[in-house]
Amino acid sequence: MPLRLIFMGTPDFSVPTLLELVAHGHEIVAVYTRAPKPGGRRGLQLQPTPVEEAARKLGVPVLTPKTLKTPEALEEFRAFDADSAVVVAYGMILPQAILDAPKLGCYNLHASLLPRWRGAAPINRAIMAGDAESGVMVMKMDIGLDTGDVAMAERLAITDTMTALDLHDRLSRLGADLMVRAMAALDRGGLQLKKQSGDGVTYAAKIDKAEARIDWTRPAREVLRHIHGLSPFPGAWAELENARVKILRCELAKGTGTPGEVLDDHLTIACGEGAIRLIELQREGKARMQAADFLRGVPLKTGAKFT
């Protein structure tokens, strides 16, 4: 029998899980997401979240409460009589009364190998820290920050070519499949839970724009991981001729020089140790572009410097 599920999610990352649960026959009785925010060309039009857009196409009721802590919100949630709630990057804390409402509990899809990178920005932090792998985990939610018992996991290698967007998209698809398998096991009564280890706990703090400036004195691989971990948003940046330039993709290269120095006409830039070659950039106020296109608009001589 399919499960009666409440789905709670907000960004693009959440959508594949919603679609896969529907495709596998589960009944989504309601979708909870964040309220629309002003957007559009003039910033005046309210923009629904990606999850709301997907839910509307599916014909599923959508709720956008500002809080879940009121008696009215709890009563409304309970009225759906759900077997379980599936939570994927919802962006709002669930109080204990909400966690206790579904018969079989609430299950979260988290984009890290818990207990490493609990919190808001696990994908960015894993890349920026130089981690060799990441993954997705399904856990039964408790009142703590990503501290619940883990049910299932999938691992994925992080390569030096991956940006945060690349890893985001792969984990999103991997996580959708994992959650479908977890809900199937829950339906059969065979979903096994394991407590998280107390060792290796780290926290993935929300990305602060102040972190985005590139420090060219660091070793080349650290610079690369910093750049890729912030690509495409907010975008790691440096100044060139008093103008800000975001660097969105790069690769390791051979060369030595003063940190930030342009070493050749292929945008090889010296780091504290080694060098990187820039592949994709974005000048302030311009569209993102490949290095060759950038150089046609901004011809650089060897010895120019990014700061």
Shape, per Cα inertia axes: elongated
The average pLDDT is 96
What share of the residues does DSSP label as strand, in percent?
A: 25-35%
Q: N- to C-terminal separation?
A: 60 Å
Rg computed from alpha carbons, rounded to a whole number of angstroms: 22 Å
Q: The biggest beta sheet, please? A: 7 strands, mixed
Could you tell me the number of beta strands?
16
Number of helices: 8
Order of helices and strands: EHEEEHEHEHEEHEEHEHEEEEEH
Strand order within the widest beta sheet: 5-2-1-6-7-9-10
Structural class: alpha/beta
What are the low-pLDDT stretches, counting only 5+ consecutive residues below 50?
none
Helix content: 25-40%
Verbal overview:
The chain has 307 residues and is of the alpha/beta class. 26% of the residues lie in helices and 26% in strands. It contains eight helices and 16 strands. A seven-stranded mixed sheet has the order 5-2-1-6-7-9-10. A hairpin with a 4-residue loop joins strand 15 and strand 16 (288-290). Helix 1 (15-23) packs parallel to helix 6 and helix 5 (122-128) packs antiparallel against helix 7 (220-229). It is elongated, with a radius of gyration of 22 Å. It starts with a strand and ends in a 10-residue tail after the last helix. The model has no long low-confidence stretch (mean pLDDT 96).
